[in-house]
Amino acid sequence: MERLNSILRDPCFLENIRRTNEREKDRIFCRHGLDHLADAARVLYILVLEEGIEVSKETAYTAAFLHDLGRWVEYDTGSDHAKESAKMAEGLLDRHGYGGPEKEVILLAIRGHRVKGAEGILTDAMYRADKLSRPCITCSSLALCKRFASGEKAEIEY
Ligand SMILES: [Fe+2]
Ligand SMILES: [Fe+2]
User: Fold this and answer.
1) From ligand 2's centre to the CA of 77, what distance in Å?
2) CA of 63 to the centre of ligand 2 (A)
3) What is the pLDDT of residues 38-59, one digit of tens each?
4) How far is CA 139 from the centre of its chain?
């Protein structure tokens, strides 16, 4: 996990997290800081193991830790944060030793993480891990959340 840890220490990574935290400080719905990224990484890796998806632990964790990095840009400009996060991830991946097919798998997972069944071997699992990692059942804003507007039940599965 050496390359992932070097990304997590990178000032560019930390500055983007800081900007998202700042914009979400009064948000009553799910936030997108480090806790969410770590939760999503762990659930994603469980899915990788359960479903036999052929990526390394570090590949899965890297995709999850970067998948919402550009969230603050969406608050500021309305631009899709999946696209913005993929753009930011590209530079970080290049600087920290990722390349070839691994880099492509990570970028596809980030870019497609809001779309069910999008292209890429890790992408659909990233889409699901993003949601499954949320402890919605305990959320005080559940009644207002559009994800549960159609009467869906919030339950912990992972
Ligand atoms: Fe997201
Ligand atoms: Fe997310």
Assistant:
1) 18
2) 11
3) 999 999 999 999 999 999 999 9
4) 19
